[in-house]
Amino acid sequence: SSPNIVYTGAVPNQQIIPAVKWAFDNLGKKVFLIGTDYIFPRAANAIIKDQITSLGGEVMGEEYVLLGSEDFDEAVLKIIKSQPDVILNTINGDGNIAFFDSLYHAYADHEKESGSDLIPVISFSIAEEELRVFKGYFEKQEKRDLYDKDGGDYKEDGREEHIDHLWSKHV
Question: Who contacts 119 (Cβ-Cβ below 8 Å, separation ≥6)?
Answer without folding.
Answer: 32, 79, 80, 84, 85, 86, 87, 103, 107
